[in-house]
Amino acid sequence: MHVRTPIAALTALFLLAGCTGPQLLNSMTPTRGYAWASNLVYDEATGLRLDVFTPDQTRNAPVIVFFFGNRWTEGDKEQYRFVGEALASQGFVAVVPNYRMYPQVRFPAFVQDGARAVAWARANAARYGGDPKKLFVMGHSAGAHIAAMLALNEEYLKGVGGTRYWLKGMIGLAGPYDFLPIVAPDLRDIFGPEDRFELSQPLNFADGENPPLLLVHAEDDPKIPIRNTRNLADRVRHEGGWVDLVVYPELKCMFGVDSHSCLVAALSSPLRQRSDLLGHIADFVRVHAEAPDREQPGIKASPIGSR
Question: Does pTM surpass 0.85?
């Protein structure tokens, strides 16, 4: 007989064993129902790699490139297998890349890495059961900043031969989108010099031409104030863009885990029944994956029969 151990008890056991939150969640992540291709090189110049999670027997599925967070300073794709499995469980192909971090690089290098990962996903989606015309970016915390910069500032995807019209949508979990003034010494170094701080703010690039955005935040987030998400949502609406805002009054998922970290942990197999987050993401992706392609400004379809 299988006995379910409460999450809090399991967490305590893993903490005693020296395991981190992601290790705990990955250890409880199903290994069936999807294929996992790991450590695929997506940028030869830097040697950066990514993982792809493909649902069993899928074709032409939406593709979601997920960027993890942690202050642009640490983290690894290996910690986020539970996110890849969560997205695959909904029938989506998940791409989880590593990117360079501070102090190895400074802004905007990690956003440029994100653009390269998106270009790779578009070029290789079909090999892994995905449809390159149903491409989304998604991120948590610092990763949501990367995803938002790609969706709002077209210069990054143009740098890899693309356009933000490649993107069907962007999903941001507890992202920093409007975090001026920058006070912390490490962040001032990451985003400096000071006369370039404005270029690091996704909010400043909202122009109404963005792909649809799903922005999610917990009201009681202790690390990234919810005003970041509310301000971006307000600016996008003001500019005539499409945005859906989901706010959780509070989130509790594991002993000792705050609502900021809980927002991504809630996607994991043992915790996803505690919120409707994965459902919100799945509904957003399914709706916008089938939406007509957005028309690029200044580009109009040629009349039938013209040359």
Answer: yes
